[in-house]
Amino acid sequence: MSRHIKPSPSRRSFLGQAAAASIATVALPTIVRSASANEEVRLAGVGVGGKGWVDINGAAKYGKVVAYCDIDTGPNRRGGYANAAEKWADARGYTDWRKLLDTEGKNLDAITISTPDHMHAPVTLTALRMGLATYTQKPLTRTVHEARTLTVAAKQAGVATQMGNQGHSGAGYRTLVEAVQSGALGKVKGAHCWSNRPIWPQGINRPQGSDPIPDAVAWDLWLGVAAERPYKKGVYHPFNWRGWYDFGAGALGDMGCHIIDPAVWSLELEAPTSVSYSGPKPNPETFPKQETLRYHFPATKQTAGEIDLYWYDGGRMPSAEQAHLPSGFKLPTQGVMLVGSEATLACSHGGKPAIYAGGEPQKITKEIGGADHYQIWVEAIKGGAEPNSSFAYAGPLTETVLLGVIASRVDAGELKWNADKLQFSNSDAANAFVRQEYRKGWEVEGL
């Protein structure tokens, strides 16, 4: 079975420039194997609790799980190591992803990666260099530099990649894109995206002291590339890590690759030229409790000119009235709104789009059916078309999302972004967050 696919052109033109711009790249080794087209795809999963349980099971519908890895071997009501051991008794279990790849790599075709954000890039890049097809949860990475690195590495490896923003394959977003690109809104003048996140603590300081590390938790492996810190029960693992700078990307990182996606996709937006933040004064440890971000993008054939995209979270939302929606129209708790010259579109996260013109609902003339995000990826491994949210698309999308993360950390007004150079032209403080230093002993070449 060939794991390799012919890459299709990216929606952005910077891939060819990326290596020269800021990343010292080398030819990555790949392992090409052949087998019957009907042979099962051999899968491994790194991080198999919570969303990771959903991912490995989603892929397993179309392949065979031969190995799994999780740093927590204790009981978990949402999957995890113990449940994987019971469900796939013939598969091998690991707590260290490096040992899994060292031991199982030659027998694998593909891997799902569903760790906390800070470990996405190290595991994914290692897998790509081994020639493995990779399915990595959103956000693809925790830093902009990591996102660019994976985009370039995936193109060089030529394997099937997919980011876990499953709404990209859903009927709602596909129908939204069709409506916008068919001209149902006219030329789009503004975009608004919002989430009800965070649903975990943010805007708080690091707690003092430490708690005993549970026997089932490999804390040092969980920290991975992040700086050492004491274990505190319930503060980081297994869920609240998203709010901490060292491990996650906050509300924006959690939901931006879902909700900003249809705006970027339908409007064919390139890299933004600037981003600015409005919200509480930055905290040194965690993301803000709420925020508003403004991204400024160059014009496209779908827009009325240069366009601003706004992001809101923590209870902030756009105004339905200013978008010329019907009086009393209630915006969903999470969604996207596109304001056009002829009509306005609103779509909830995971829902179907609705279009209004002059306060009156408009008929959606063409609905597009959904597809299975995992099946798309596995079919590509078998030689099918490039996945719809491959790293060629998902890498640039993640970069855009993470620029907002940086803006919220420095609160320095409008940050001017140069995507080719992978740097801000007016803020050394912001540039300091484009990439990170990995903990000694956890360095990965190229990251």
Automatic annotation (TrEMBL):
Gene3D superfamilies assigned to the protein according to its UniProt record, in alphabetical order: Dihydrodipicolinate Reductase, domain 2, NAD(P)-binding Rossmann-like Domain
PROSITE patterns given in the database record: TAT
Record domain Gfo/Idh/MocA-like oxidoreductase N-terminal: where: 82-164
GO molecular function: nucleotide binding
Domain Gfo/Idh/MocA-like oxidoreductase bacterial type C-terminal: residue ranges: 210-286
Full protein name: Dehydrogenase
